[in-house]
Design brief:
disordered C terminus; single chain; Rossmann fold; alpha/beta; 6-stranded mixed β-sheet
Length: 281
């Protein structure tokens, strides 16, 4: 008797108009030692989608995002950026990129904004934003500066362009990090709880910028605990529980009429009164 699992069926995900999905994830598994963090997660982000991923701490949300951004290699499953399948070499003990140059190239198509900003402390805000376009994309210095200054205007911290991160508030650091990610002109923006490290009075500054990106039609996948904001900007919400997708659908369905007890309990803890979320005008 053959107990081997059937081979994973691979296909390019198309939308109804015949365009290839921006990101597609199929049956993703990821473990750290004996701790199985992701247990078969699949999702599809079409162009212009805003997908918010919610769930308790430790449920696998950030690990999923890090796999999509190729910072972690899944033990099983597939990730496609547009129609390009990420090549992964797997052995019994570990997984690693099969094509290092592919990973480097695909990362330029994915903009990542982390919880803790990850700005280079020895560089000014402007230097942080122009570093990758100049050295990775080989954009001329003058052009990179011009684009960076426009982005800093966009996120509202142009006047801080010559400051070092140590002299910025948390909200200003995160807006600088968003500008840095946008400077690479990514096809998809990934946000890993972008407001979780901020003082409450700074949260609205960052959410205002993300709302603007959503209104522009940018494709975004966002891990967040800002439930009301997720309801307002998302095309789809995914609730992850213990490494699996427990609920998935339109915001009004997942947040307004959850079908599982786990999701109902989670929302009871995390949904705040509407007037506690103050967005900057």
């Amino acid at each position: 008797m053959n107990d081997a699992s059937p081979p994973l069926q691979s296909s390019v995900v198309m939308n109804r108009k015949g365009s290839v999905a921006a990101v597609s994830v199929l049956d993703l598994h990821k473990s750290y030692g004996s701790n199985q963090v992701l247990k078969g997660v699949s999702l599809v982000a079409q162009d212009h989608d805003v997908i918010s991923i919610i769930g308790s701490s430790g449920s696998g949300k950030s690990t999923l995002l890090r796999c999509i951004n190729l910072l972690e290699m899944p033990d099983q499953g597939e990730i496609r950026i547009k129609d390009e399948l990420i090549a992964i070499k797997r052995t019994v003990n570990f997984a690693k990129p099969a094509k290092a140059k592919q990973i480097e190239r695909l990362r330029t198509r994915l903009g990542m904004v982390f919880q803790n900003f990850n700005l280079w402390s020895h560089m000014t805000v402007l230097q942080n934003v122009i570093e990758a376009p100049i050295h990775v994309k080989k954009i001329p210095n003058s052009e990179a500066i011009e684009k960076a200054e426009a982005l800093l205007h966009k996120v509202g911290i142009y006047d801080k362009r010559h400051e070092y991160p140590a002299f910025l508030s948390g909200g200003e650091k995160q807006r600088a990090a968003i500008a840095r990610a946008l400077a690479m002109e990514p096809q998809v923006m990934l946000f890993d709880e972008p407001t979780s490290s901020l003082d409450p009075e700074r949260v609205g500054e960052v959410l205002k910028v993300i709302r603007t990106l959503a209104e522009e039609g940018r494709t975004m996948i966002m891990v967040t605990h800002e439930m009301h904001f997720a309801r307002e900007v998302s095309s789809e919400i995914i609730y992850i529980h213990q490494g699996k997708i427990a609920e998935q659908g339109k915001p009004e369905q997942v947040l307004g009429d959850p079908q599982t007890e786990q999701c109902r309990n989670f929302l009871a803890r995390h949904l705040r009164p509407r007037d506690t979320l103050k967005l900057e005008p």
